[in-house]
Amino acid sequence: MRFRLTSILTLALITVFAQNPNMPSDFLRKEWHKERRQKLREKMPPNSVAVFFANAVRNRSNDVDYTYHQDPDFYYLTGYREPHAVLLIFKDKQKAPNGSLYDEIIFVQPRNPIMEMWTGRRLGNLGTKDQLGFEQAFNNTDFKDYNIDFSSFSQVLFFDFFNDVRDDARDKGDLYDLIEQFKNKANYPRKETLSVQREQPQNNLNTQVLTDIMDDLRGIKTPEELELLRKAVMISCIGQVEVMKAMKPGMSEREVQGIHEYVFKKYQAEDLGYPSIVGGGHNGCILHYIDNYKPALDPKELILMDLGAEYHGYTADITRTIPVGGKFSPEQKQIYDLVLAAQEEAMKICKPGTRFGELYEATARVINKGLAELKIIDKPTDRHLYYPHGCCHHIGLDVHDRGTYDVLQENMVITIEPGIYIQENTTKDPKWWGIAVRIEDDYLITKNGCEHLSSFAPRTTEAIEAMMMQPSPLDKFLLPELNKVTPGKN
Questions:
Q1: What whole-number distance in Å separates Cα of residue 479 and Cα of residue 490?
Q2: Is the model's pLDDT at 403 over the cut of 80?
Q3: For residue range 281-321, what is the model confidence (pLDDT) as tens digits?
Q4: To the nearest whole percent, how much of the chain has pLDDT over 90?
Q5: What residues pair up with 139 in beta bridges, in sequence order?
Q6: Cβ–Cβ under 8 Å, residues 179 and 165
Q7: Is 34 exposed, middle or buried (CB count within 10 Å of its CB: 0-12, 13-18, 19+)?
Q8: Which end of the chain has fewer CB atoms within 10 angstroms, the N or the C?
Q9: Distance between alpha carbon 373 and the CA centroid of its chain, in Å?
Q10: How far apart are CA 279 and CA 368, in angstroms?
Q11: Which of 411, 307, 310, 267 has its CA nearest to residue 75?
Q12: Which CATH number applies to 221-468: 1.10.1040.50, 3.90.230.10, 1.10.10.10, 3.40.1280.10?
C-alpha cells in the first residue's frame, strides 16, 4: 500500500513530530556540547579538520534493528542522538558561499513525516540548529555536494573505518553513503591502492591523533557530567540494595537481573551501560557471564552481580557479591574479606599523582598474600589465574571510558574492582570450588584523595547480611505458575 499525503497533512505531521514535550529536563545543555567542541578545537593541530560519524544502525534480525545508541564521541560533541550524521570541526574559520565564516558544520538525517510515524521524531537540520545550537546544520543528503577540499588541510583527523556499515539503497544520505562520500572527497585509500599507499602514504589523513585528544577531553569530567554520573551510580546502588532485600533461594539469575533493571527503569535510566552480569555459583567464575540462564539459585551459593545503569548516556559500573541464602559460609567470608581488604588497600592511595598500575599492584599484593595464607597457592609470588584482570578503569559515556591511563588526575571517575574466582578442580581442597567474589565501586578523584560514589550499596559481609534481612516490597509480588494457568481465565 502506498501512502499519499497532501501538503497540509505533511505540514501538520511535521509540526506535531517537531515538538516533544515529554523529554527529561536534565540532559546536558547545548552550550555544554558547544564548549566541548571548542575544547577539542583548541587541541587540534594547525590547519586541521576533525571528522566524526554517528554510530551505525545495527540489525537484530530480519526487519528489526537493535535499539539505537549514539557513538559516545559524537554525542559528547553534539548532543545529537540520531543515526546517519557527520560532524566536521575546523581548527580555523572557513568561508561559506554567502561569505559568512564558520568553524563547524553538521549534516543530519532530514525530517520525514512518514518515517517519524513509524520510528520516532527527528530533529532535522532546523531542529538541530534550534535545539543543539549549530549555526551550520544541513540534511545529510547535502553532504554529497558540500564543497570541501580536504587536501588543503595539513591534517584530516578521523577514526578509521571497520567497513561494517549496511547500505540502505533507499536512503541516499545514510551512514554508508556519508562514509563513501567522505572517502571520495578525502582521497581515502581503497583496497586496490593499498600497495601504493604504503609507498606513498596520504600524509594528511590521520587516524591516530583524535584518540589522544578525545582521551584527554573525556577522561576529566566536568561538573555537569559528574551530576549525571552520580545519578547513574546511585540508581545502580539502589538496584543492588533492592536485590539484597528481595533475594530468595530458588530465584533465577534472570529474575535477579530483572529486579536490577526494573529499578533502573523506575528511575528513568534509558539503557544499560553494558550487558548485565548475574552469575550464581560457578557462573560467577566467568568474568563476563551474560547468559543469566540458571533457573534456580542454591542457598549455599554466592551470586555475583555486575550491573550499571546508563543515565542520559553516562554509566555506572558496580559489582556486589552476596550469599543467596542470606549468610556467608566461613570459606565464602574468607574469600570475600580478602577481596574487600584488597579494594580498601587501593582506596588508601587513590588520589592525584598515583599511577594506575600502583592501584593494581596494591590489590594484587593483598590477594596473593591472602591466597598463600589460605593455602590456595603455595607462596605470594606464584603465578595464578584466581585474579586474572585489572582493577581499575575510567567510567563515563562508556563503561570503559576514554581517558589516559598513566596517573590519576582530579575529576577522573574510575572503578576499583579486585576479584577472586576459584573454578572447579583448581585447588587441592574442593571447599573453595565455585567461590567467585568481585567487589567493584566507583570513585571520583578529588584534589587530595577520592570520593566513594557507590558507598550506598553495602559492601562488608556484616552490612550485606543485615540488608538481606530487611523486607522487600517484592515479597508479596507473586505471579501465577505458567503450567497452572488456564487460557482465558483469571
A1: 12
A2: yes
A3: 999 999 999 999 999 999 999 999 999 999 999 999 999 99
A4: 87
A5: 108
A6: yes
A7: middle
A8: N
A9: 38
A10: 24
A11: 310
A12: 3.90.230.10
Report the 10 Å Cβ neighbour count for 90.
18
pLDDT of residue 202: 62
The C-alpha atoms of residue 255 and residue 479 are separated, in whole angstroms, by 12
Strands (E), 46-110: 48-53, 59-61, 64-65, 86-95, 101-108
20-24, 284-288, 323-327: the lowest-pLDDT one? 20-24
How many Å apart are CA 316 and CA 415, to the nearest integer? 9
Cα–Cα distance between 229 and 316 in angstroms, integer? 7
- 3-class SS of residue 206: strand
Q: Smallest Cα–Cα separation from 52: which of 158, 183, 148, 124?
A: 158
302-307, strands of its sheet edge to edge:
277-280, 302-307, 318-323
Residues whose CB falls within 8 Å of the CB of residue 332, separated by 6 or more in sequence, listed in order? 302, 323, 435, 437
C-alpha closest to that of 232 among 277, 278, 263 = 263
**Of 12 and 253, which is predicted with more confidence?**
253
pLDDT in tens, 188-213: 998 655 444 444 446 899 999 999 99
CATH 3.40.50.720, domain 7-216, yes or no:
no
**In whole angstroms, what is the distance from residue 364 CA to residue 309 CA?**
28
How many residues does this entry show for the chain? 490
Alpha carbon distance 416, 265 (integer Å):
26
Would you state the pLDDT for residue 21? Answer: 61
Nearest to 232 by CA among 455, 23, 464, 454: 454
Name the pairing type of β-strands 413-416 and 441-445. antiparallel
Domains of the chain, by residue range, sit at 7-216, 221-468
CA distance 319 to 260: 12
The Cα–Cα gap between 41 and 46 comes to 10
What's residue 62's pLDDT? 93
Cell of 123: 530533529
Smallest CA-to-CA distance from 137 within 110, 175, 91, 105 is with: 105
pLDDT at residue 469 above 60? yes
Q: What is the pLDDT of residues 60-109, one digit of tens each?
A: 999 899 999 999 999 999 999 999 999 999 999 999 888 899 999 999 99
Residue 204, strand partner residues: none
| Cell numbers that stand for 181 in this block | 562520500
Q: Extract the C-alpha cell encoding 177.
A: 553513503
- Fold identical between 7-216 and 221-468? no
Q: What sign for the dihedral angle of Cα 394, 396, 402, 407?
A: negative
> Can you tell me which residue has the cell 517484592?
474
